[in-house]
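Q: Structure tokens for this one, please.
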Amino acid sequence: DLSALRQSQRESLRTNRLFKFSAHYVQGNIAFKSQRLKTPGFLLFIIQFFVGLVNRQIFLSKIKKSLKHLYIFCAVSSIIERRKYRVIVIGGVYLSTIIAVTNQKGGVGKTTTSSSLLAALHQRGFRVLGIDLDPQGSLGFCLGLDIENCATVYDVMKGAKAIGEVIVETECGDILPSNILLSGAELEFNRPGREFLLKNQLKDVQDDYDFVIIDTPPALNILTVNAYVAADSLIIPMAPEILSLLGISQIRETIETVRRCYNPNLKVLGILLNKFNPRLNLNREVLDLSEQIASQLDSRVFNAKIRASVAVAEAPAHGESVLTYAPSSKPALDFQALLNELLNQRLISVRPAVREAD
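A: Here is the predicted structure, written as tokens:
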């Protein structure tokens, strides 16, 4: 049979080439020294030997491509460059994860939590953006910005400025600041679709950041709804007080309304206890009650509890986060533990978009 003869000849030729190559390689690259082979040369010989036993072209192309991707990925130093490389290799666009820090009760540590998460993520190499939706402008002020003499999120939401023109760089990451002008949002933003003002503006920069942290006002108004519509998830800080528990129970209805009408994927990551002292009976009782409320929100109380310290009050006076002002203080260590909990348990991550890359 002619085809069988040709197949036999091809196999014979391949075998001859393999053994010639192997013999040449052994003579030229493998040497005995103290009755041991040179490890790199021997391993390379084994790899090449098995390459000859399979379809060489397909095997080599796959191995070469995989090793090239692995080498480039490992060689890239920053997280942002790794994220961009994943975009090229996988063929998708990576969007930032958006977290809103919320509680309608004031004085529970929303701004402290927001600035600390920004600082902790920034210290670990993530590209972060903080958005201040509180008309008091506390987040920008705490991080050293002159909020009275700069463009703010108010200009962005009413369409007067592009979001990229308003973002300010700080030592804890980029900030979209706010000031008292935002207090008129409830009356001024009254056109249809006003719940999506922030979400629509974020589309222009969302690919540039790994995480976006939104500091919300102590109220259930249109600004809070904008934060919920734009966010992927919520963190609810609270002080170990009964009134803080009342605030959480009240925002539950707002969360359910936003899920039903605007953002069905919104989830509550957990309840964070600030100013916590486990030695006090009231603190332990509030912890038990907060766990019951968290179960009603299909969520949890974070294992990390933020302890009280004077450093939390001193840091804003120096225009810093507590993590940069007093990195060894108890609250700074607690916020680092909170971020470890979020990352290790995969409660937050950089998420891929469904759309294709250009």
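A few notes: The radius of gyration is 28 Å. The first strand starts at residue 32 and ends at 33.
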